[in-house]
Amino acid sequence: MSMLTPPGMGGKYRVTGAAYPRMSRPRRRRRIVLTVLGAVLGLALLGYGSVQLMNVFRGEGGSGKHQAAGKDCATPKPRAGAAAAASPAAAKPAAALPQPGEITVNVYNATPRAGLAKAVGDELKKRGFTIGKVGNAPADFDKKVPGTGILLGSPKTDKAAFSVLGTQLEGDTQQTDAREGADIDLILGDAFKDLSPKEAADKELYLLANPQPSPAKTC
């Protein structure tokens, strides 16, 4: 009989060295650890939700930022006096420009291309300009104009007349001389190919007479 067997007990109740009851480890510690971790996670989630809720009420959320940006880019409300002052300006008519028929144009050819001055003069006449002299360019300009052309007039010539004639070709330059009249010389240079298409010239002339306001600031 083993020493571990209580007195008076034997048979199947006998405890031998090879067989003994296995004792299971209590699981209470694992439950406590899981409970503590769950509580900590719950408190963290609760704190994060509280912070987000406070930001919403303070206007610091995403929509609040967009609203603040909109306020920064918003156009300030004009004062009553400023609105009254701007009203007459808005009612002003389009810029006063001379009509093409009021501009006398002398067309001169400074290139080796024969008949260029006459062809350009005929086209300008169709577009409403008054054509004066047509021929080869003076010696000071003959074969010496590398660009598209030169608009040559008096210092007293209305600048608007230069602008109106300038809508008919691209890349021209403006110069003045000692003449007294209001006529303008169009001296065709080596880079000249053709007048601007009539549709494009008419559009540029319209924009010249009706300047567009600057686009509003966008956010």
For the largest sheet, list the strands in their spatial order. 2-1-5-3-4
Count of helical regions: 6
The share of residues in helices is 25-40%
What's the average pLDDT? Answer: 79
Radius of gyration: 47 Å
Biggest sheet statistics: 5 strands, mixed
Uncertain runs with pLDDT below 50, 5 residues or more? 61-71, 82-89
Cα separation of the termini: 97 Å
Shape: rod-shaped
Number of extended strands: 5
Question: What is the structural class?
Answer: alpha/beta
Strand content: 5-15%
The arrangement of helices and strands along the chain is HHHEHEEHEEH
Can you describe what's shown?
It is a single chain. This protein is an alpha/beta fold and 219 residues long. Helices cover 39% and strands 12% of the residues. Strands 2-1-5-3-4 form a 5-stranded mixed β-sheet, covered by helices on one side. Strand 3 (149-153), helix 5 and strand 4 (173-176) form a beta-alpha-beta unit.
Protein traits:
about 220 residues; alpha/beta; five-stranded mixed sheet; 5 strands; about 40% helix
Question: Helices, strands, pairings?
Answer:
Elements: H1 28-58, H2 62-73, H3 80-90, E1 104-109, H4 116-126, E2 130-136, E3 149-153, H5 159-166, E4 173-176, E5 184-188, H6 198-209
Parallel strand pairs: 1-2, 1-5, 3-4
Antiparallel strand pairs: 3-5
Summarize this entry quickly.
Residues 61-71 and 82-89 have low confidence and may be disordered. The protein is of the alpha/beta class and 219 residues long.
